[in-house]
């Protein structure tokens, strides 16, 4: 009888452990830990039942003690199960951090176009992840630019950044590969907001990344497009993020990219001027502007991050209906 109990317990442990090993999103990690604890308890029960069976057959007095342990272990198992349920319930009741994925074509694109926004959201508790499509080898030293991308991400407070190696200046020729990479990132992170390049951009790589994001994120609820130095006159931001308190972090992140320091749009004065221009439109001191492909404002995580003109008391991205012309259309 103890052998049968042991087989059943071991089988259940294998099933639970197998379910825990399946790759899932970050949201499921706590559930996986609870499942692994239950698996361990089931395996202990299986071992104890086998020991009881062997002790019984040998007439060992220890069989009584082992049998008592097998009676106690189900209670331990129930306790672990209740702990797991409690953890999942607490996780559901707690505020889930906003998850953001920022996608750029080259190292420095995220810092230049949305460095203040990303720094602000990260400082407010959002989990911000970066994805860059190329090393930027045609515009500088590839190895150096990878390290600078990591340094810039650190300056903005990003959780992590992935720098891929698709060919610089030829990203449109690798659209399918980019879509697959973006889909994999979105599946892993499950972001609430995606920000990326605008379609209204003179740089062919920026436009190619925008198109790839729109394909990969076809089911995403919120997508914002940022303002690179190479946007065209058709770029028309309808949302503004107040970065007044985070402009220094943006400038610091941009200055991590020393390989590109000779470019005119990398200077602090240019960055401050653009932020002041967009800030005047958003009715704040400094801001970054975005085109809204679509934006879900009813999410319970949004109030501490986003403000809408129609719900200014609870949200934080400000919307405007005026058309703005960029002050700089240079291509990086």
List its salient traits.
332 residues, alpha/beta, eight-stranded mixed sheet, disordered C terminus, 8 strands
Quick structural gist:
The protein is of the alpha/beta class. It has helices spanning 2-21, 29-58, 62-93, 109-123, 142-156, 175-189, 204-216, 247-254, 268-282; strands spanning 99-104, 127-132, 160-163, 193-197, 223-226, 239-242, 287-294, 317-319.
How would you describe what is shown here?
There is one protein chain. With 332 residues, this protein is of the alpha/beta class. It has 2 domains: 2-93; 99-319, Rossmann fold, CATH 3.40.50. It contains 9 helices and 8 strands. It has helices spanning 2-21, 29-58, 62-93, 109-123, 142-156, 175-189, 204-216, 247-254, 268-282; strands spanning 99-104, 127-132, 160-163, 193-197, 223-226, 239-242, 287-294, 317-319. It has an 8-stranded mixed sheet, with helices on both faces. Helix 4 (109-123) links the parallel strand 1 and strand 2. Helix 1 runs antiparallel to helix 2 and helix 6 (175-189) crosses helix 7. The longest helix has 32 residues, at 62-93. The radius of gyration is 27 Å and the shape is elongated.
Overall geometric form: elongated
Task: Return the average pLDDT rounded to an integer.
Answer: 79
Number of strands: 8
- What is the CA-based Rg, rounded? 27 Å
Spatial ordering of strands, largest sheet:
3-2-1-4-5-7-6-8
Please report which band the strand proportion falls in: under 5%, 5-15%, 15-25%, 25-35%, 35-45% or over 45%.
5-15%
Question: First CA to last CA: what distance?
Answer: 74 Å
Please write the string of helix (H) and strand (E) elements.
Answer: HHHEHEHEHEHEEHHEE
Provide the CATH superfamily of the largest domain. LmbE-like
Level-1 CATH class name of the largest domain: Alpha Beta
- What is the CATH fold-level name of the largest domain? Rossmann fold
How many domain units?
2
What summary fits the major beta sheet? 8 strands, mixed
Query: What is the CATH-assigned architecture of the largest domain?
Result: 3-Layer(aba) Sandwich
Number of helices: 9
Structural class: alpha/beta
Low-confidence segments, ≥5 residues, pLDDT <50? 88-93, 303-332
Helix content: 40-55%
